[in-house]
Amino acid sequence: MKILDQPKEGDYSTFFSTYLNLVSGNKYEEQILKQADSLLGLFHKKGLEWASTAYEEGKWTPKEVLGHVIDTERIMTFRALCFARGEKSALPGFDQDPYVLNARFGEMQLHYLLDDLMAQRIALLSMIRTLPEDTLDLVGTASGNPITPRALFWIIPGHFAHHMKILEERY
């Protein structure tokens, strides 16, 4: 895989700094695959009851967190594709809570969600491999803020790391 350097400050809104500060280096593919493996290991170790139990009232279950991560990765990947292809229209934001509620991740079999994460990660890497290098820094607008495909791609493992830490510490 080609090297995917991290985005520069200014390629994304400061909102995403929280996620981008959780990832480092430029071994993107390695990080993406290691993260997926560690999540699979966590869910297999903890079991089905754990996957369906929130750590407190009103919080998502681990299965719902997993579904949210998958949804977010799909949205970030779609945005990156649009901007890499030169999309000039602004893309909307999304409210994560109705997405999780309407998806009903808690009703899904865990192995479907885990397979879905792996499929999303493989599709993500495949797409990155086929993008021309100069399209990674084209600027588009999402949620009212300028952002590049490169930044969107790096937000994915940062967002994942954020939620993985929560799964490990609170659940």
UniProtKB/TrEMBL annotation:
Transmembrane segments: none annotated. It comes from the Bacteria. Residues 36-166 form the DinB-like domain. This is DinB family protein.
